[in-house]
């Protein structure tokens, strides 16, 4: 029998059912993602009950497909990893239940993983992480600056006081009449328009590393509604460009401030909004000028969204530290780093 060399990783925190096989050398061997976007699109956002039902339908086939694609059997597995939180509690429980059942039946250890840590460790597939590092986490539910002195240690030094950046994108997209999820389309529209509306850059001059996007969202909505009441037509391209310019400037400025306050070797940009071309370019330009010695790492587009590959990468760190879970592992929707 071959030595066990792989971890089976499961992710089901929101609306993506995903299973991956990752080697103990941190090679992503397979990464299956079953998206639910078409089901949720008609509702304009994720419906938790619908998401849970889809996870039930897809989780077993995703596990089988991931192992087949990786050409591994149960005998090749070293452990099973699963997202513990944060996320939708019903969705989390589907993945956890499947992971516990599989691990128990095959006498494998169970590794609990923080979903946000997974987003950070997606960058490890690009280059080995060097410490200390800074991580900018930007997604639909989170906007955080995380300082990491070493593997598996997280210090949140800045976070949003209200809406996350990704949440603001979704709500602005709804006002523009775009289909969910609208982040990619707003990004594309923004590159065709100009920042003519000069929306607010909340907290950009404050002496802290926190964010706020509710004021920007409100300013955008009020601008559109006021124009509608006056039967005025606003340029959608300029609206998108103005909104994105505000988000990118705030995120970039706060991240520069964080790296000035906490000297680091690398900056990791992670989460769904890390796929945004405007943000990628803004950070690249800013750090090339201000911190040329800080290495900027942004995962490829297929690893920015929710996927089990990132959970497997984070699980390797937890496994080496012997951070294992018992059979009483439960979903923790409010889990923090």
From TrEMBL:
Its cofactor is Fe(2+). Its EC number is 2.3.1.234. Substrate binds at residues 137-141, 170, 183, 187, 276. Fe cation binds at residues 115, 119, 306. The keyword Metal-binding applies. The keyword Transferase applies. Residues 28-312 form the Gcp-like domain. InterPro entries: ATPase_NBD, Gcp-like_dom, KAE1/TsaD, TsaD. Keywords: Acyltransferase, Cytoplasm, Iron, Metal-binding, Transferase, tRNA processing. Binds 1 Fe(2+) ion per subunit. It is found in: Cytoplasm. It catalyses: L-threonylcarbamoyladenylate + adenosine(37) in tRNA = N(6)-L-threonylcarbamoyladenosine(37) in tRNA + AMP + H(+). GO terms for molecular function: tRNA N(6)-L-threonylcarbamoyladenine synthase activity. Required for the formation of a threonylcarbamoyl group on adenosine at position 37 (t(6)A37) in tRNAs that read codons beginning with adenine. Is involved in the transfer of the threonylcarbamoyl moiety of threonylcarbamoyl-AMP (TC-AMP) to the N6 group of A37, together with TsaE and TsaB. TsaD likely plays a direct catalytic role in this reaction. This is tRNA N6-adenosine threonylcarbamoyltransferase.
